[in-house]
Amino acid sequence: MKCISIWGFMGAGKSTVGRALARTYAWKWLDSDTEIEKQEQLKIPDIFKRYGEEYFRQLETRFLENLWNRMQSEPQASEWLVLTTGGGMPLREENRQWLKKLGISIYLHVPFDTIAKRLNRRDSQRPLWDGSQLEVMRRKYEARLPSYRQADVVMEVQGKSVEEIVQELGALVLKPPADV
């Protein structure tokens, strides 16, 4: 099994794109936050409130370790897995190493102003988003950029439809290897 991990700031469209990519190509799809919620039997905001961010980051690392072990025990080389990550997962060096070990990493880059509009439009249940503190959130976004940019592919998605992004990702992943 091969893995495509999709990274980005909250509101970048990771889950929407990941779900559409998996559906389009009949690949498996996992969302790390959803899987952690099932495991802990708590919603992400409740995990943050009850145990704190550091505990949650440890859960993310454990999730990646378990996923790696599962993929090694079920090596179906022709299958792809699309993994959408929480926005903070790639911040830890250890997690970035796991994500790269799992396969191809894609960072969906969306400008901060677009993300702020998206998240302020919704009734956001995100534990780290505070729309009343836009400059604080902008600094958080900018602080995460160096980690995000360590993905194998940085994809500019501003102004593109989900379908266009899925087509680009599919072409990228399915292209034949270059002649050596």
Automatic annotation (TrEMBL):
Pfam families reported for this sequence: SKI (PF01202)
Signal peptide, first to last residue: none
Enzyme Commission numbers on file: 2.7.1.71
Known catalytic reactions: shikimate + ATP = 3-phosphoshikimate + ADP + H(+)
Subcellular location: Cytoplasm
Enzyme class of the recorded protein, top EC level: transferase
Cofactor: Mg(2+)
Keyword vocabulary terms for this entry: Amino-acid biosynthesis, Aromatic amino acid biosynthesis, ATP-binding, Cytoplasm, Kinase, Magnesium, Metal-binding, Nucleotide-binding, Transferase
Keyword Lyase set for record: no
Pathway entry: Metabolic intermediate biosynthesis; chorismate biosynthesis; chorismate from D-erythrose 4-phosphate and phosphoenolpyruvate: step 5/7
Any one of the GO BP annotations: aromatic amino acid family biosynthetic process
Binding site for substrate: 33, 57, 87, 144
Function of the molecule: Catalyzes the specific phosphorylation of the 3-hydroxyl group of shikimic acid using ATP as a cosubstrate.
PANTHER family: SHIKIMATE KINASE, SHIKIMATE KINASE 1, CHLOROPLASTIC
Record's protein name: Shikimate kinase
Species of the source: Caldalkalibacillus thermarum (strain TA2.A1)
Source organism phylogeny: Bacteria, Bacillati, Bacillota, Bacilli, Bacillales
